[in-house]
Design a protein that fits this description.
194 residues, alpha+beta, M1 Pyruvate Kinase, Domain 3, ten-stranded mixed sheet, two-stranded antiparallel sheet, 31% strand
Length: 194
Amino acid sequence: MKISSIQVAQARKVHMGGRNILTAIHKTALAGPVPVGVLGLMGDEQADLSVHGGLDKAVYAYPAEHYEFWRRQRLQAGVADLAGMDDPLEPGALGENLTLSGLLESGVWVGDVLHFANCTLRVQQPRDPCFKFNAAMGFGSAAKAMAQSGFCGFYLSVDQPGSLQAGEPFELQPGPRRMGIPERFNARMFKHLR
């Protein structure tokens, strides 16, 4: 397991869904060590602290293995016909801070700990899809596709601040193993659909 890439963004106004909104979903990859504090990566910002950020959602991680699924989803939705939307998805396209290789949602439980060389992060919860995700992906059913696939990624809290670097390996230390990320995500999606 390793970090494929690290991304951050500052909140900015963008035109989505016929209106201007503040968002930090459009992340940019960084090279070199990135400092990590208790509220996340240095240089990263969240636009809506009611649903992103804070101690339990300091860092958002997403499996690199799902990128091919999203490329296919965009092609099926006809996004490839839009200018520039047929380009390959860059790391961070799903709004994640960490693009991870070798760790899927099915292998992660709430409370598991990710040990890096200079930082320790704890799994807290899955991501809930939202309208900003639809806009970032370029098609209106992206959030629904996330809900149906379970390819949601997960939020991490910072147990030990330090630094992270792309290409860095990490180890997973199992937590209490009471609730897996897929089970928690499915419970949330069921609640929203009722």
